[in-house]
Automatic annotation (TrEMBL):
Species whose genome carries this gene: Pedobacter chinensis
Descriptive protein name: ABC transporter ATP-binding protein
One Gene Ontology molecular-function label: transmembrane transporter activity
PROSITE patterns in the record: ABC_TRANSPORTER_1 (PS00211), ABC_TRANSPORTER_2 (PS50893)
Source taxonomy: Bacteria, Pseudomonadati, Bacteroidota, Sphingobacteriia, Sphingobacteriales
The keyword Transport is annotated on this UniProt entry: yes
Amino acid sequence: MISIQSITKKYNHGPTLTFPDWIIQDEEQWLLLGASGSGKSTLLNIISGLLKPDSGEIKINGTDIYSLPLKDMDRFRGQSIGIVFQKPHLIKSLDIFDNIALASSLAGLKINKSRVMTLLESLGLAEKRKNFPDELSQGQLQRVSIARALINNPSLLIADEPTSSLDDENAENVISILTEQAAGNHASLVIATHDKRVRNRVSKEYLL
Ligand SMILES: Nc1ncnc2c1ncn2[C@@H]1O[C@H](COP(=O)(O)OP(=O)(O)OP(=O)(O)O)[C@@H](O)[C@H]1O
């Protein structure tokens, strides 16, 4: 369970943002909605352990993430949260298999080769495992970033605007992949989006 309570964030020379409390139960799927500038990216960064709030608590399975020493927090974050960014941010000099495996090493975990292969297979990427990021299409790269986000069996999978640059058919596919992969991997899912097409697919909504 993820619990978000009494969070505020004041930027220097910027607004003070306050966020409604939010409980995300295990395996629930949510949309994070809000107008441009309402604080979606800020909240995702706070939940992901990347931006310390000025007040309030984020608890993941009972652990207050900002109470951890920095090194423990990095590790905890790498093991508990998988993030699919708008752009994949893969390492160009590593092949697809190694890009995914790297996420385990960075989180202080042993590489589980058969899990890497299982994820690649379930995302239709097995035959691309030895290719480099430059050799894949945008849609394939996005699926690689979903595999990378899931490799450590996170409790929470976060996707930030995953469909904003996609046509209807590809947007449908990505939402199906995210919802199915989150369910199949027993992760909760949060999709931040403006996209009305996504609203028909995920019923729970947290609105900023
Ligand atoms: N580093 C910063 N310094 C000052 N103000 C900031 C900073 N980052 C964000 N803000 C402000 O905080 C508010 C929330 O920004 P945020 O990026 O979280 O919104 P958002 O809902 O993700 O927007 P969008 O949908 O346009 O990406 C905005 O008013 C923004 O200008």
